[in-house]
């Protein structure tokens, strides 16, 4: 059965719109060294990546690491902001969606202020009607609160919204709020995430444009 036509797109940020994994890796290691100790081996970054999409504080709790790493992590991340890049094809996609009058929003595990700063630095802020960070809701992803806040603020029908992300928390958030979901594959999410049910799997950002006209499209891999 075909999905409803897509009338709005909600994006995750890291791993979906921006290539920031190396910056996150370095900030994580720096925060662990400064708070826990430079002589203590941190849990592998691959373990951190399993929980992407969640807030940093949530991830620290899951990994058994101190919440005091959060401000250090933010400081170290901000110091490396100039090294963040937009994934190939994302700029053209956002411009095309904007030209077609498609509302767009961000739902990210980052805090609101840092999200706005990054989008502004990269020249992407103008495209988004709503930005929801992990500090804007009581229950960040994977809970549906962030997606629900967006549909309420923009007066959208969840069933005609597409939630695009690269992490398990993104898909769970979108599904729990009644949205269609798309797994972004261009930052190479793990096999566990690839196996998780989603409406679509996308190998390139531009494929989202094909979904605006046809809910199912031959060159897009359905879950």
From TrEMBL:
Belongs to the HAD-like hydrolase superfamily. CbbY/CbbZ/Gph/YieH family. The lineage of its organism: Bacteria, Pseudomonadati, Pseudomonadota, Gammaproteobacteria, Pseudomonadales. It catalyses: 2-phosphoglycolate + H2O = glycolate + phosphate. Keywords: Carbohydrate metabolism, Metal-binding. InterPro entries: HAD-like_hydrolase_sf (IPR050155), HAD-like_sf (IPR036412), HAD-SF_hydro_IA (IPR006439), HAD_2 (IPR041492), HAD_sf (IPR023214), PGP-like_dom2 (IPR023198). Its EC number is 3.1.3.18. One of its GO terms (molecular function) is phosphoglycolate phosphatase activity. The keyword Transmembrane helix does not apply. Its cofactor is Mg(2+). GO terms for biological process: DNA repair. It comes from Pseudomonas protegens. This is phosphoglycolate phosphatase. Pathway: Organic acid metabolism; glycolate biosynthesis; glycolate from 2-phosphoglycolate: step 1/1.
């Amino acid at each position: 059965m075909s999905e409803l036509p897509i009338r709005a797109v909600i994006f995750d940020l890291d791993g979906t719109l921006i290539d920031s994994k190396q910056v996150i890796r370095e900030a994580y290691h720096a925060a662990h060294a400064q708070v826990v100790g430079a002589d203590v081996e941190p849990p592998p970054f691959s373990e951190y990546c399993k929980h992407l999409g969640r807030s940093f504080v949530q991830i620290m709790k899951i990994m058994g690491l101190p919440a005091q790493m959060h401000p250090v992590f933010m400081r170290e991340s901000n110091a490396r902001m100039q090294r963040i890049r937009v994934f190939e094809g994302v700029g053209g996609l956002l411009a095309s969606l904007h030209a077609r009058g498609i509302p767009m929003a961000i739902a990210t595990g980052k805090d609101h202020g840092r999200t706005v700063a990054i989008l502004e630095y990269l020249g992407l802020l103008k495209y988004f009607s709503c930005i929801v960070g992990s500090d804007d809701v009581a229950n960040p992803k994977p809970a549906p609160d962030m997606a629900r806040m967006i549909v309420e603020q923009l007066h959208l029908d969840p069933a005609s919204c597409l939630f695009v992300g690269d992490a398990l928390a993104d898909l769970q958030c979108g599904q729990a709020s009644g949205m269609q979901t798309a797994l972004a594959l261009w930052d190479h999410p793990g096999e566990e995430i690839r196996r998780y049910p989603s409406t679509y799997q996308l190998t390139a950002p531009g494929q989202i444009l094909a979904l605006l006209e046809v809910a199912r499209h031959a060159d897009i891999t359905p879950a």
